[in-house]
Amino acid sequence: MTETFLVHCHIPKTGGSALNHQLLSPSFGRNGFHRLYRYVFECAAVLPRRHRARSMRSQGASGHIPYGYYRPVYPDAFYFSIFREPVARFVSFLNYVCANPGHAVRRRLDADLIASAASHPDRFACAILQEPRLSVVHSNVQSRLAAGLPRLGERAVDEDDLDHAFRNLLQPDYIWGTQEAFDTFQSQVENWLYARRLRVRILTDIPDAKAKRLAHRFAAGDLAPATLARIRDANQLDMALYEQVLRGLPPRFEVAA
């Protein structure tokens, strides 16, 4: 297990699917990259047996995976994530719920509320923020995964978790960028792979069957100031994390190279 093992800690609604389809899947092939988008409920320190067997036949993994998840099998793995401005990420999540009839969040909401989301986005957003379980799971997701916590945790993240996230972002095995500079980040990942003599293949066009071209019901500008304030308050840890990502941390590829 001396080869480079890559783990895409895919934070929902940050452009991670585009990175998978344009770079990771073409480069590593269908069996070379373990797709782990369900049942990642365990603590990051315990890699389940079913995930261990599959990962040992792969060159990497992608999914809503917390930082450090693969250390029991690959202590020298590299992790990477894309971060996004928290309010924009949360609004994108709301649109994703509206566009996908099978989404789990819809089972907790009234059907009429979802049907009228486009015309009453404030009511729809506030309904999710008011539902305790939804708020715990879908707020501060970036801080949760960067801190090494399971995405579907039973408790809300706190200031101690944010401190863990800050420390993890400084680790040389954690590579990250921002959705706002997605093309630059993808190019840096390509160069990083080349430098380690890993096969790189790029798809410039995403097939319609795999693209997430959603019909956005509303944007942040359609929400009332009070609703935006509630979203910021619910994601205040992510706001602090993202501010630090933009302002105070060193360039990741210089550290990790």
The proportion of strand residues reads 5-15%
Q: Share of helix among residues?
A: 40-55%
Poorly predicted runs are none
What order do the SSEs take from the amino end to the carboxyl end, as H and E? Answer: EHEHEEHHHHHHEHHHH
The assigned structural class equals: alpha/beta
Overall average pLDDT: 83
Measured distance between first and last alpha carbons: 20 Å
Multimerization status: single chain
Number of helices in the DSSP assignment = 12
Task: Provide a quick synopsis of the model.
The chain has 257 residues and is an alpha/beta fold. It contains twelve helices and five strands. The model has no long low-confidence stretch (mean pLDDT 83).
Describe the structure.
By secondary structure, this protein is α/β, with parallel strands linked by helices. It contains twelve helices and five strands. It has helices at residues 16-28, 49-55, 86-99, 111-115, 121-130, 132-138, 141-146, 159-169, 182-195, 225-234, 236-247, 252-256, and strands at 6-9, 33-36, 60-63, 78-83, 174-178. The protein has a five-stranded parallel β-sheet with strand order 2-3-1-4-5, with helices on both faces. Strand 2 (33-36), helix 2 (49-55) and strand 3 form a beta-alpha-beta unit.
Keywords:
257 residues, alpha/beta, five-stranded parallel β-sheet, globular
